[in-house]
Amino acid sequence: MPFLEIITYPDPILRKIAEPVKDVTDEIIKLSENMVERMYLARGAGLAANQVGISLRIIVLDMQLKKDNKPIVVINPSIVYKDPEEISEEEGCLSVPKYYDYIKRSKSISAKGMTLSGNSFEMDCEGHLARAFQHEVDHLNGIVFTDYLSPVKKHLFKKHYLKNER
């Protein structure tokens, strides 16, 4: 598989709702391995398939940012519960390089999905893992973290970010 390029804002694929994975094939396993490798190379804590130009519902996560750690790979992830208590923390994105801002997200979540062996699973998570999970599932739903900015901040982001990135 060729080197996976990270797609950056405002590429339209970041706004597209990703398609579910029907079967975990050897190609899906290889893609997820390449996504993990690309995430580590970019020094990110998470990556969604549409961020590398592939509109499939796959995310990879690793809050430790170490190659010897076991990353989390989730096929067809979804969030089934969000704690109503939200926490605002600084967030960034591999698809929006060099931009960070404070975003409110649920403190904890319950999520479900499928493993690379094709088994269903559910997990409860909180803190940074819950934040990363929400961020990556948002990507699969065509949502970029800057969508959560206030109207004024969003205007400033678009005005300055796009000007500086060109």
Which helices and strands, and how do they pair?
Blueprint lengths: L25 H16 L4 E3 L9 E4 L10 E11 L3 E8 L2 E11 L1 E7 L5 E7 H14 L10 H15 L1
Antiparallel strand pairs: 1-2, 2-3, 3-6, 4-5, 6-7
What does this structure look like?
The chain has 166 residues and is an alpha+beta fold. The protein is 27% helix and 31% strand. The longest helix is centred in the first third of the chain and has 16 residues.
Relevant terms:
166 residues; alpha+beta; two-stranded antiparallel ribbon; 7 strands; 27% helix
Largest β-sheet summary: 5 strands, antiparallel
Can you write the helix and strand succession as a string?
A: HEEEEEEEHH
- Helix fraction, binned, reads 25-40%
> What integer is the average pLDDT?
94
Q: What fraction of the residues are assigned to beta strands by DSSP?
A: 25-35%
Q: Let me know the number of strands.
A: 7
Morphology call: globular
Major sheet: arrangement of strands? 1-2-3-6-7
> How large is the count of helical segments?
3
**First and last CA, distance:** 29 Å
- What structural class do the secondary elements suggest? alpha+beta
Rounded to an integer in angstroms, the radius of gyration calculated over CA atoms is 15 Å
Poorly predicted sequence stretches spanning 5 or more consecutive residues: none
